[in-house]
Amino acid sequence: MAKVTIQQLKEMKKKGEKISMVTAYDYSQAVLVEKAGIEVILVGDSLSMTMLGFPGTVNLTTDEMIHHIRPVVKGAPTPMIVGDMVFGSYNESLSQAIGSANRLMKEGGCDALKLEGGCPEIVEAIVKAGIPVQGHIGLTPQTASMLGGFKVQGKSLDAAKKLIDDAKAIEQAGAFSIVVECVPEELGRAVSQAVSIPIIGIGAGRYCDGQVLVFHDMLGLFDKFLPKFVKQYAQIGPEIIQALADYKKEVKDGAFPEEKHTFGGLNAEDLKGLY
Length: 275
Ligand code: KIV
Fold this sequence. Notes:
Blueprint: H1 6-15, E1 19-23, H2 27-36, E2 40-43, H3 47-50, H4 62-75, E3 80-84, H5 94-108, E4 112-116, H6 120-128, E5 133-138, H7 157-172, E6 177-181, H8 185-194, E7 199-202, E8 210-213, H9 215-218, H10 236-253, H11 268-272
Parallel strand pairs: 1-2, 1-8, 2-3, 3-4, 4-5, 5-6, 6-7, 7-8
The site of 3-methyl-2-oxobutanoic acid has 12 residues, from strand 6.
């Protein structure tokens, strides 16, 4: 299959064909996403919680992000792979932002980058450096404490206008798409109509141009909390726990391994002479 391109995603929006996007953080997950035919993989900084056990996304470093992008690139040749710019890697200066972006592209090998916030000047600088950028507005987890926690954003008309203006400015700055997180459904629709680039929603309702979910949330692999906007398509976590418990029991009672799991070739009597 040919690699998914930015042009393809824009065409999909034009035709009203929805875009599917999901996070993945390692080789085995990427292989599964590739096989499912999903168009875009986000190596999201949510890996800080789902893979590394931190309470939030702020701790994650660019080195850690690169470490996770590389196996995803190997496992999924077809989807577009978007790497997340981590907190603190693009808020000091434009040259810091471009430096961090260059590292993710060169050392990680992804196709595009995502960055949080209504910051068109940073988007523009990175796009001008030749790197495709996806914006991320609404609830931005890296700065959730500034937004009063993990809450629905854009609920007043003023806040909705600011979000739409941010989306327009990010499009103007050259972004190829924008993730909009946790806003009222009608605001998700309005943002999608206000710009010509694809709006990928997460908790932004049914009328966005595509949807993104976190791998662990949608598959039942993360039990710390579950946002209202997540649909769980499987409950893999409990199945894994049951399989591990069955294994433990069979090791203890000798039911595993069976003869079919063993290697022949020597007999016990011959070996007795050796000890
Ligand atoms: O890091 C992430 O998983 C994200 C999604 C929530 C869009 O940014």
